[in-house]
Amino acid sequence: MSTLFFTIATGLAGGLALFLFGMHLISTGLQKAAARQVQQLLGAVTKNRFFGMLAGLVVTIFLQTSAVTTVLLVGFVSAGLMSLGQALGVILGAAIGSTLTAQLIALRLSDYALWAVVAGLVPYLFARRLRWHHLGQAILGFGLIFYGAALMGTAVAPLNTLPGFTTALRPLADHPWVMMLAATLFTGIVQASAATVVLAMTLAAQGALPLEPALAMVLGANLGTTATALISSIALSREAKRVALAHFFFKLAGVLLFLPFLGLYSHLSRLTSPDIARQVADGHTLFNIINMLVFLPFTPWVGRLMERILPDAPEEEKVAKYLEAKVLDIPELALARATQELLRMAGIIREEMFPRVMQPLAEREVELLEKLRGLDNILDYLYRAVARYLAQLNQGNLTDDQLVAQTRLLYIANDLEHIGDVVVEMAHQWRKIEASGVEFSPAGQAELQEMFNKVKENFTTAIQAFATGDEAMAARVIKGHPEILRLEKNLRYSHFQRLQQENRLSLETTSVHMDLINQLLRLNIHNVSIAQAVMGII
């Protein structure tokens, strides 16, 4: 008896270990090979939740991980390019894509598992190009998950011969809530819902578990998979916490919806195939498809609910929220993290600094200059943090494209830091006006506001181009610079005309007026520099 138990435990633990290692190889290999393409795909569907759902499905089918998707979604939400509701549509699609592993296992490809190991090992060891090396790693991972699943199946086959096993399992099988909670806990520990689903498929295929409790395990696997995102979001931004909480909300609501109707759920799964292992895999897919159909129309409202549960918190000074050291060995993910931090810098400029710097004197905040200096200090710190983070990337592991992307990010970080400096200098000029007790002439104030609005619009366009990699949008900023130059000359000419007419307000504010025009021009030069970096003109 003890020998049989040891054999079963060894096969089950070893198979699970190979399965989890295979999943790791697949996700990291494909992340390294294709994270850039994933970013471009998600950036192209930021405005439509249905296409966002399809993008999430495609990305997760290809990568078999939601890690890259979540990283990029948080960045888009932080930059204001995607609402939380739109991001939630991508998450629902990603949940469907994550069921592919169980479907492949149900095809019983274990006979070809070792051939996949061989096919992946050759490019993994001998390929000279990094992309082929990473793809070989992913193929090797697929071989290991198939082989690990086969080992688990072989290990649990004798379970029915063990006296008392069915009796010991019956309390769980007779109480789906308990089975669901046990599967949730197991999934939270191994951090892979596919492992729990495959274990449920294996136990069902060997006759050790009926379909209904096996599907209760599937529900627990779907709920347990949210633990990873919830835990990892603790140290991340408020946007990341909202995405993780919404993911948990969708899964919990789905489980609470399905569990009381487990009999009907089982009946639908039986209709898909005569094979019970396939029924479990199909039940996993059915759960996520139905969950998507139920909740996709309500993603805007769920997004607003998450924002009420986790409202915006005051910005923490001198804290880099996105620069995770653990992804430095995956250059594309590290570059995406640095991009998110730069988008956060851009958000501080757009949301905190720009709205304040051009306010009329009567509406200006007390201690405005000190407030803008504090925000500029945050930008200075984040600039240094991003530069240090990017310097930690191993140059030998970077492709030529990644080296260019690294340089591009450093250029953009420098421009954002300088924009903060220029805004503070503008506030100094406004302080002079405030101290003098004389305001700009109405015409002069309107002209400055007109130029500022155009510069601010160009900044927003340049940052959107940076976030989405849209070179056409970046080109519009560059092509629009001559218009800003003409406007600058027109504003100078108009001001000097007012001086010739002996306009007292224009005379007393001439120095500040000219300095503000110069600083607005400097702001737009940095906008152009950001756009040029997006286009690779560095």
From TrEMBL:
GO terms for molecular function: sodium:phosphate symporter activity. The keyword Transcription regulation does not apply. InterPro entries: Na/Pi_transpt, NaPi_cotrn-rel/YqeW-like, PhoU-like_sf, PhoU_dom. Its main location: membrane. It is found in: Cell membrane. The keyword Transmembrane helix applies. One of its GO terms (cellular component) is plasma membrane. It comes from the Bacteria. The chain crosses the membrane at residues 51-75, 87-106, 112-127, 139-157, 177-203, 215-236, 248-265, 286-303. GO terms for biological process: sodium-dependent phosphate transport. Keywords: Cell membrane, Membrane, Transmembrane, Transmembrane helix. It is a multi-pass membrane protein. Residues 343-428, 448-534 form the PhoU domain. NCBIfam families: Na_Pi_symport, NaPi_cotrn_rel. PANTHER family: SODIUM-DEPENDENT PHOSPHATE TRANSPORT PROTEIN 2B, SOLUTE CARRIER FAMILY 34 SODIUM PHOSPHATE , MEMBER 2-RELATED. This is Na+/Pi-cotransporter. It comes from Neomoorella glycerini.
